[in-house]
Amino acid sequence: MSYLVLADYYFNKSEYSQAQAYYDSSYNSLDQNYPDYSKLEVKTRHLTKLVNNLNTIKTEDSLLRVANMPTKEREMLIAQIIANVQAEEQKAKELEAQERQQSLLYQQSQRNRTTTNQSNSGKWYFYNPSSIETFGQSEFQMKWGKRKLEDNWRRKNKRQGRHRRPDQQHGRIRYVKNPQKQPIE
Predict the structure, then answer these.
(1) Per DSSP, what are the bridge partners of residue 57?
(2) Which residues, other chains included, contact 140 with Cβ-Cβ below 8 Å and sequence gap of 6+?
(3) By the 8 A CB rule, do 16 and 47 touch?
(4) Of 20, 86, 130, 185, which one has the fewest beta carbons inside 10 Å?
(5) From first to last of its 185 residues, what are the pLDDT tens digits of the chain?
(6) Could you tell me the residue ranges of all domains in the chain?
(7) Cα(119)–Cα(161) distance, rounded to whole angstroms?
């Protein structure tokens, strides 16, 4: 239902691409027994055709603009596009290599864990330093990546935190954003 409300909103603002996406989602998610479902179906179909035509026009205009550019500008634009594509491919390769490295590290830690567990059966995990260093560290790095040892290592914005302060009336803990500016009542 919210898809339909957003679709009508964007349609009234003449933002047809956004409206088409929401009409399509509402058409696919609403039941056929919904009132005015047939109108929704017709509107979605026609709006999809309109958006496809608008996208074609936008693409053709862009190609004409590039074709009408002076040769040097066109070559610079093409070189820039090629450089961007190569940079994206390089990032994808690096990410793949990093994921592969983490996978290998995890597999190695699993192998070490099984051999450690077989040789040290009956001993507690934390009594065995090699178990902590191999399995614990690799498992942490698989989940969190390589992190610098610091306070609030899980937070993106380390300056923004919540401070606990006891509520004197009810004995409960309440959270305040800035404890210096909010006195206890």
Answers:
(1) none
(2) none
(3) yes
(4) 185
(5) 788 899 889 999 999 999 999 988 888 888 888 888 888 889 999 999 999 999 999 999 999 999 999 999 999 999 999 999 999 999 999 999 888 888 888 777 777 666 655 555 556 666 766 666 666 777 777 777 777 777 776 666 555 544 444 444 455 555 545 555 544 54
(6) 2-67, 71-144
(7) 44
**48 and 20 in contact (C-beta within 8 Å)?**
yes
Distance (Å, whole) CA 67 – CA 75: 11
User: What is the identity of the amino acid at 92?
Assistant: A
In one-letter notation, the amino acid at residue 137 is Q
> What DSSP element (H or E) covers 151?
none
